[in-house]
């Protein structure tokens, strides 16, 4: 056998070698049949070729094919697992980004709310500082009542308030009438403008004390009642 023919055999593929091996095995089996004696005509009886003689070659090829299919299946499973892990990682990253964005949004909202509260407190302090100081006497009470009446849209003048106060109580915020019809009915008139409790409760002005004897609360409630009944406290010149 020459070297070139040996090299040619070595260059055969695995499947080709398996096929050649199978054919060679089959040839040997056939030759064995021709050599076994016992035939009716020649003294040699034919013997059927044994299936097990070609089985090794067939089995090897089948195992090779199954091994290849198994490798492909495993590879596909690995690809699917990798893609699943990659998708899960992307979702986790997305969720983390959304969580951070929500935290930033919440922090900004809290900061804005804090700034708004600070601005309101500053405005309130500024308003308190700019609030005029009223003297704790009849003049101061009337002037404070007039400012509240102006803010609430209640008509009346300094002259109209002062005139009716002097007639009703002579400027005494603790004055009380214990002899008129109201007193007889159990609801005496009280304060600077001699207001009974039911009238005070009905016409009390928000922002003032809910105290019938408080000078400013008494004046504003009486002026509110007079505006409703007479148009303004300035139109009142007698008991009302």
UniProtKB/TrEMBL annotation:
<dbReference type="InterPro" id="IPR008258">
    <property type="entry name" value="Transglycosylase_SLT_dom_1"/>
</dbReference>
<feature type="region of interest" description="Disordered">
    <location>
        <begin position="108"/>
        <end position="131"/>
    </location>
</feature>
<dbReference type="Pfam" id="PF01464">
    <property type="entry name" value="SLT"/>
</dbReference>
<dbReference type="InterPro" id="IPR023346">
    <property type="entry name" value="Lysozyme-like_dom_sf"/>
</dbReference>
<feature type="domain" description="Transglycosylase SLT">
    <location>
        <begin position="165"/>
        <end position="235"/>
    </location>
</feature>
<protein>
    <submittedName>
        <fullName>Lytic transglycosylase</fullName>
    </submittedName>
</protein>
């Amino acid at each position: 056998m020459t070297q070139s023919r040996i090299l040619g055999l070595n260059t055969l593929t695995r499947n080709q070698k398996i096929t050649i091996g199978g054919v060679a095995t089959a040839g040997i089996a056939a030759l064995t049949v021709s050599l076994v004696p016992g035939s009716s005509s020649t003294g040699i009886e034919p013997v059927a070729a044994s299936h097990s003689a070609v089985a090794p070659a067939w089995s090897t090829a089948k195992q090779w094919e199954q091994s290849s299919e198994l490798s492909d299946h495993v590879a596909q499973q690995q690809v699917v697992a990798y893609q699943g892990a990659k998708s899960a990682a992307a979702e986790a990253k997305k969720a983390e980004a959304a969580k951070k964005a929500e935290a930033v949004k919440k922090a900004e909202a809290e900061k804005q709310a804090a700034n708004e509260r600070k601005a309101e407190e500053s405005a309130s302090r500024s308003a308190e500082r700019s609030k005029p100081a009223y003297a704790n006497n009849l003049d101061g009470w009337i002037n404070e009542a007039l400012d509240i009446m102006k803010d609430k849209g209640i008509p009346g003048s300094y002259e109209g308030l002062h005139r009716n106060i002097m007639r009703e109580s002579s400027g005494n915020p603790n004055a009380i009438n214990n002899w008129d019809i109201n007193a007889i009915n159990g609801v005496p008139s009280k304060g600077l403008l001699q207001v009974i409790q039911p009238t005070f409760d009905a016409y009390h002005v928000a922002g003032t004390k809910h105290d019938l004897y408080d000078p400013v609360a008494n004046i504003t409630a009486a002026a509110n009642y007079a505006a409703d009944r007479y148009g303004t406290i300035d139109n009142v010149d007698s008991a009302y």
